[in-house]
Design a protein that fits this description.
CATH class of the largest domain: Mainly Alpha
Strand content: 15-25%
Shape: elongated
Helix content: 40-55%
Structural class: alpha+beta
Protein name: OmpR/PhoB-type domain-containing protein
Number of strands: 8
Keywords: DNA-binding, Membrane, Transmembrane, Transmembrane helix
CATH architecture of the largest domain: Orthogonal Bundle
CATH superfamily of the largest domain: Winged helix-like DNA-binding domain superfamily/Winged helix DNA-binding domain
InterPro entries: OmpR/PhoB-type_DNA-bd (IPR001867), Sig_transdc_resp-reg_C-effctor (IPR016032), WH-like_DNA-bd_sf (IPR036388)
Organism: Rahnella variigena
Length: 148
């Protein structure tokens, strides 16, 4: 599911559009897909004592995470920090040496809006509907024919 989050009552992160913006200002940052996924994962685990590096890596790269370097994750986290700082949000998350990161205890995150993903496959429903309409029309035509 895609959500829109309100952070510290003044920043909005929209997972669908991958935008991070400061309310009541012109600051609007479009994140790359990778950074947006990483920020989403951090937000979803904001209550965790420590968000382990391996868990973030697994969430971002899946089974390929074994083959990605620690530097790739470090770079992604650095770029997210830079983007958030540009918007005015300093130290949303901090490094926990040799473990991972954790979201600052002073940070607040609220879900403003949760978007339900669109239905991917509507065809079986349409086929069933079409079949029912056809049967009803055929039945009506047959009934009218017999009445004559």
């Amino acid at each position: 599911m895609m959500a829109v989050y309100l952070i510290n009552s003044e920043y909005v992160f929209n997972e669908k559009t991958k935008e991070f913006k400061k309310l009541h200002s012109d600051v609007n940052i479009k994140l790359t897909s990778m950074r947006a996924r990483c920020l989403s994962y951090i937000i979803e685990h904001a209550q965790d004592e420590v968000i382990e590096k391996e868990a973030i890596s697994q969430a971002l790269w899946g089974s390929r995470s074994k083959f990605t370097s620690d530097a790739s994750l470090t770079q992604t986290l650095y770029l997210i920090r830079r983007d958030l700082k540009f918007a005015g949000l300093d130290e949303f998350f901090i490094t926990v040496p040799k473990s991972g990161i954790r979201v600052s205890t002073s940070a607040t995150v609220e879900i403003m809006e949760e978007k339900v993903p669109p239905v991917k496959n509507v065809r079986p429903w349409l086929l069933a509907f079409g079949f029912i309409v056809s049967v009803l029309l055929l039945g009506t035509a047959l009934f009218l024919t017999l009445q004559l």
